[in-house]
Design goal:
A 6-stranded mixed β-sheet has the order 2-1-3-4-6-5, sandwiched between helices. Helix content is 34%, strand content 20%. The protein has helices at residues 8-25, 81-84, 88-98, 115-126, 142-151, 171-176, 180-187, 208-218, and strands at residues 32-36, 51-55, 73-79, 99-110, 154-162, 194-201. The longest helix has 18 residues, at 8-25. It is built from 8 helices and 6 strands, in the order αβββααβααβααβα.
Length: 235
């Protein structure tokens, strides 16, 4: 995935995702935020939570066995982490465990029901040539993922698709098709090459006043993990 993100289509997709996540996390408040995977995406740079970690750089751990207490995080970001996971279900269950009630989850995923996904699948069937998208990963459909989230008591509060240009390899050809972005988002929005989902963890019977009290108490101590937190100062 890292090598592919250096290609023209990879840079195009990463720029769209960076814009989406910058806007989404800027006004999400709390104390503890975690990004799992894809260090090329600076997913927490606009967030103001005092404790922010990137797994793989700030702490080393298995994504399905996180070194955090249950209900201790306010935000978890999964940029393509589910489609690259050995067990996407196990990863989602672990994220649900460490998130507080009313905590936020943000997911980016490649859309198999897109022109980019179609080209990838045709390449696999023909078994020739270099695949357009990264070889690794099991791309998870948007509606399939929403069903998984619902089963884990997540409520989707924002979702969108993006990246509508055809699956072309060069920057010049991608630039020529820039006009299709507005057309695609208006006329066939669910066919974008990538989707963004923001969900909130719901707990029946939980009252917001109790949440506020618990979060104030949590501010007095961070989750018990050993890591280098030198860059987590507020910007």
């Amino acid at each position: 995935m890292a090598a592919w993100l250096q290609t023209p289509p990879g840079r195009y997709l990463l720029a769209w995702e960076q814009a989406q996540v910058d806007a989404a996390v800027a006004d999400l408040f709390g104390f503890h935020a975690l990004q799992l995977g894809l260090p090329e995406l600076n997913g927490l740079q606009t967030n103001r939570m005092p404790h922010r970690w990137l797994a793989g750089r700030d702490l080393q751990c298995d994504f399905d066995a996180l070194p955090f207490e249950s209900a201790s995080l306010d935000l978890v970001l999964l940029p393509h982490s589910l489609e690259l996971a050995c067990d996407a279900h196990a990863l989602l269950r672990e994220v649900e465990r460490v998130l507080r009630p009313e905590g936020r989850l943000i997911v980016f995923g490649l859309n198999p029901a897109s022109l980019w996904g179609l080209r990838q699948n045709l390449g696999r069937l023909k078994r020739r040539g270099e695949p357009y998208l990264p070889r690794d990963g099991d791309f998870i459909g948007y509606w399939r993922l929403r069903d998984w989230l619902k089963l884990l008591s997540f409520e989707v509060e924002a979702a969108r698709f993006g990246v509508y240009r055809p699956p072309l390899r060069t920057e010049a050809w991608l630039d020529r098709w820039q006009w299709v972005e507005g057309v695609g988002s208006r006329w066939w929005p669910v066919l974008g090459a990538v989707y963004f989902i923001q969900a909130v963890k719901r707990v029946q019977g939980m009252r917001m006043i109790g949440l506020a009290r618990n979060q104030r108490a949590a501010a007095k101590k961070a989750p018990a993990v050993a890591l280098n937190n030198h860059h987590n100062k507020e910007e």
